[in-house]
Amino acid sequence: MCQLLAMNCNVPTDIVFSFTGFAHRGGRTDTHHDGWGIAFFEGSGVRHFVDHQAAIASPIAELIKHYPIKSLNVIAHIRKATQGQVALENCHPFVREMWGRYWVFAHNGDLKGFEPVLDGPYRPVGNTDSERAFCFLLQQLRDRFGDTPPAMPVLRAAIADLVAIIARHGTFNMMLSDGTALFAHCSTKLCYVVRKYPFTAACLADEDLSVDFSQVTTPNDRVAIIVTTPLTTNETWTEFAPGELKVFVDGLPQS
Amino acid sequence: MCQLLAMNCNVPTDIVFSFTGFAHRGGRTDTHHDGWGIAFFEGSGVRHFVDHQAAIASPIAELIKHYPIKSLNVIAHIRKATQGQVALENCHPFVREMWGRYWVFAHNGDLKGFEPVLDGPYRPVGNTDSERAFCFLLQQLRDRFGDTPPAMPVLRAAIADLVAIIARHGTFNMMLSDGTALFAHCSTKLCYVVRKYPFTAACLADEDLSVDFSQVTTPNDRVAIIVTTPLTTNETWTEFAPGELKVFVDGLPQS
């Protein structure tokens, strides 16, 4: 199974600390060595890095760990191949444009017999169940709403409906963002923490590293981190319920 | 005006040498400091790097100069903003998926009054004339050929037709690739060189650096480099004619 990491904030924040721990799961503290990727929204633009090398051995992962790219929405993924060979086109996250916005998607799990009819403009380039699911999601959203994105409550309900359809085929933990919100769906395993004032120190579970967030934040900052398994040993992580879709905006899960 | 660089080869080749000279035009030997970007095809996957910092100051450009990513098709761009502010979403190259392939596009020039009706699935995320032209091209290709890509001669004729329509609005030097071929159109300024056996040494025009290609190639290798102005001082560069579209496959311009 793969591992997922996402961040959603109310002010542009770098993910260096969390990514450093996460990247160690790509070949060191865990066995996810079939590629990795990360996408950062910056305004409406996206920086997208993928590599078929293990995150622990990748010069690009090394760059990300030392280059504080500030972003409101980030999605990262470390791959353990279940379907599709180890190749760049099969590395998550995947990016497509719809409604004049980029959409970023990553998936952890394994879908069986998921072969939707893809007759719209979104086609997989690689051969993973995950990219098929992403193309299906976008095709369905475009079929339902045409050329104009609906209001958030309507969009959220549609995505909840669609991920439930996909999840009938197997495990479908997934992250999706259009740069304004982060949608996270849990089939089996996902948890989150909201870091906000008063900030404290956090210690990584995967590396002997801690950071005192009170030194690098303002009282108004709010950062939600969503991940497959907790990244730190001294913060309280909230588990998702199986089948739950949460939407994060400005660093907070929406009720 | 911006600067363009592309590479098309018959064996996966790194672009470190040519990119090193090219990147110096982003803020050192020339004044193109409003961002830059590069996209590498690797199989059917794409590595896409964009940055709104000048190439000369960018840590990501530094990585590319030292990390030999091997690719059959590469497109790079250094931006001097004419339309659209300096922002990540306005950095070339742009990437979209069509027909289950990624398409990569970069443009040098300035289009006046080019406001095509974009009612298909490809919409600009940023606000440049260039991204509008790219979306128009893809929309028109999809309108003409539906869900199935045509044979190369038909595709080439369609692209030649469409770039001529766009070029009526101004300068439209452009590079386009779907990972199998590289399409290069010249309005005003573009030249190319084909490096092949017997390989010799080449000296960069923008930096005191030379490389002896005979040391790093086999007799079967063939590499076409297409660029706004010649990158080296001791190779014979062939200029495009104004209005000319060339298609490069396996390191050779197709007749």
* Biggest protein-protein contact in the assembly: A-B, 37 and 38 residues
How far apart the termini of chain A lie comes to 29 Å
Fourth-level CATH superfamily of chain A: Aminohydrolase, N-terminal nucleophile (Ntn) domain
- Count every beta strand of chain A, where a strand is a DSSP E run of 2 or more residues: 15
Shape of chain A, please? globular
> Uncertain segments of chain A of ≥5 residues (pLDDT<50)?
none
Description:
2 copies of one chain form a homodimer. In chain A, strands 3-2-4-1-12-9-13 form a 7-stranded antiparallel β-sheet, covered by helices on one side. In chain A, strands 5-6-7-8-14-15 form a 6-stranded antiparallel β-sheet, covered by helices on one side. A two-stranded antiparallel ribbon of chain A has the order 10-11. In chain A, α1 packs antiparallel against α2 and α3 (129-145) packs antiparallel against α4. The longest helix of chain A has 17 residues, at 129-145. Chain A has one domain: Glutamine Phosphoribosylpyrophosphate, subunit 1, domain 1, CATH 3.60.20.10. Chain A has 4 helices and 15 strands. The model of chain A has no long low-confidence stretch (mean pLDDT 92). Chain A has helices at residues 16-23, 59-66, 129-145, 152-167, and strands at residues 3-14, 36-42, 45-51, 70-78, 94-98, 101-108, 173-177, 182-185, 191-196, 201-203, 210-212, 222-227, 238-239, 245-249, 252-253. Chain A is α+β, with helices and mostly antiparallel strands. At the A-B interface, β3, α2 and β5 of A face β3, α2 and β5 of B.
